[in-house]
Fold:
Amino acid sequence: GKMSAPSMQERKACWGARDDFWRCLEAQGEDAARCQELRLAFEARCPQQWVKYFDKRRDFLKYKKKLESEGFHPPETTGKA
Amino acid sequence: GGGGRSPLPLWQRLAAVAVLGGAAAGAWLHLRARREQERRRRRARELRALALGQGDFELVDHTGRPRRKADFLGQWVLLYFGFTHCPDVCPDELEKLSRAVELLEADAALPPLQPLFVTVDPERDDVAAVARYVRDFHPRLLGLTGSPEQVRAAGGAYRVYARAGPKDQDGDYIVDHTVVIYLLGPDGLFLDYYGRAKTPAQIADSVRRHMQTYEPLPD
Structure:
């Protein structure tokens, strides 16, 4: 059957778990091995598709930051979701 | 040589100045009105040439009531296309849209603004799903869905790109889509658009300006 979309409460719980995990990664110099508990909590709170999506998003944000700090101006994205 | 001219009496000179001045003012006003009319006609041609949001749609709102595009004529509309399984962008944009509508509602001099959400994922976003979704945002946010054909037609009319990604083992997927909030005027025509970078205040300011300077387009 069709899975219900996450409610607002579930969305916020997912985003919170994601933010906790990301803060850990930043604090641990991107060492994912030191953030395993938060990773598991993130995967538990978010639909699998969202975990994949946020992983890709973070990679993109890191890449963008790297380009900006190295003085290269990336083309503007269309902001597709 | 010229002969001497006897000067006109003062009142006649004043009358002459008044008549000439009146004629000049009249001519200037007429010219300005003609320019305004030409500007409006040119703008009408440009907006029509864009052909954005043309055509009708037959969708269903989140209460199950059928809605056509004509139902919204006479209203200002802020329109967003998204889907309920959207990870972050759609809630953010709908939150922003709702805040903008609230800012404008605070000004009693402005006409009402109808917030509208149209799904790009009709396969999953049925009436019940859309109803559950829209209630988390502005109380007057109206959600629209329908058959895949009708939804595709509505999205196409507004040049909204939408493509469902691959399904995972749970059948879940993300719909990649254009992220933009459209402003429609009371004649149903597209007037402006707002991207991700716009804040609620910026959107409200722009909508307010459009409302205050709105002129119905000539046919």
